[in-house]
Amino acid sequence: MKNRLETIQGDITKLNVDAIINAANTTLLGGGGVDGAIHRAAGSELLAECKTIDGCPTGEARITKGYNLSAKYVIHTVGPIWREGKNNEEELLRDCYWNSLILAGENNIGTIAFPNISTGVYHFPKKLAAEIAIRTVREFLKNNDKMEKVIFCCFDEENFSIYYSSIG
Ligand code: APR
Predict the structure, then answer these.
(1) What is the CATH number of the domain that holds 92?
(2) Residue 1 binned pLDDT confidence (cut-offs 50, 70, 90)
(3) Cβ atoms within 10 A of the Cβ of 46, count?
(4) C-alpha span between 16 and 20 (Å, rounded)
(5) In whole angstroms, how far apart are CA 3 and each of 42, 51, 71, 101, 150?
(6) In 3D, which of 144, 57, 136, 153 has the Cα closest to residue 98?
(7) Which domain holds residue 65?
(8) Where would you tag: which of 8, 12, 17, 52 has the fewest CB atoms within 10 A of its CB?
(9) Which residues does ligand 1 sit against, CB inside 6 Å?
């Protein structure tokens, strides 16, 4: 398990993995943060494909091609907006990781990278988000040996130190 889970600090759009996860919004029509970075790097064809998908509810995931990214696919998932933890946010964040992994498995994806979903504009507490992310991915990897590697791609120092202290 140890070497199938990794945490790095960097720009997810630069990673050479089968799929990167986008922390999108329910319209799937782009935005700021990692969503903006992925759309910029992938090019306009990504938005064109996203327009053919009728949005994505919070907690669910949708897959598209990666276009100009080195990743073959982008899996778009919509994290919960943190509202003091009183609106099922923990369960919805878990669903983002779980549904993205299920969708990756259905598409025979072997290497995947997650950003720290919901911990930017959506203000989900970083430590709690990391606990949910790591627990959910470990649970999935236990029962799915086809998934070779899951990378947590942290952009900011705070997230990186949280993940690194948990995973090493
Ligand atoms: N690579 C990896 N991680 C990144 C990158 C990048 N290039 N750019 C930003 N991040 C990190 C942020 O530092 C944060 O830790 O992604 C994490 C998620 O932050 P946001 O991108 O703000 O996403 P989120 O909090 O889920 O809010 C989603 O923001 O951009 C809009 O359209 C998006 O409405 C949606 C909302």
Answers:
(1) 3.40.220.10
(2) low
(3) 24
(4) 9
(5) 28, 37, 20, 17, 9
(6) 136
(7) 2-167
(8) 52
(9) 11-13, 23-25, 31-37, 79, 115-122, 153, 155-156, 159
Which among 18, 35, 95, 156 is annotated as catalytic? 35
Determine the atom of ligand 1 nearest the C-alpha atom of 36: 30
| Contact of 132 with 126, CB cutoff 8 Å | no
Tell me how far apart the terminal alpha carbons of the chain are, to the nearest angstrom: 12
Placement of tokens 């507490």 in the chain: 125
Tokens of 13: 């759009």
Beta strands per DSSP E along the chain: 5-9, 19-24, 61-65, 73-78, 111-114, 149-154
Q: What is the pLDDT of residues 33-87, one digit of tens each?
A: 999 999 999 999 999 999 999 999 999 999 999 999 999 999 999 999 999 999 9
Tally of residues, the chain: 168
pLDDT in tens, 122-155: 999 999 999 999 999 999 999 999 999 999 999 9
As for how many domains the chain has, the answer is: 1
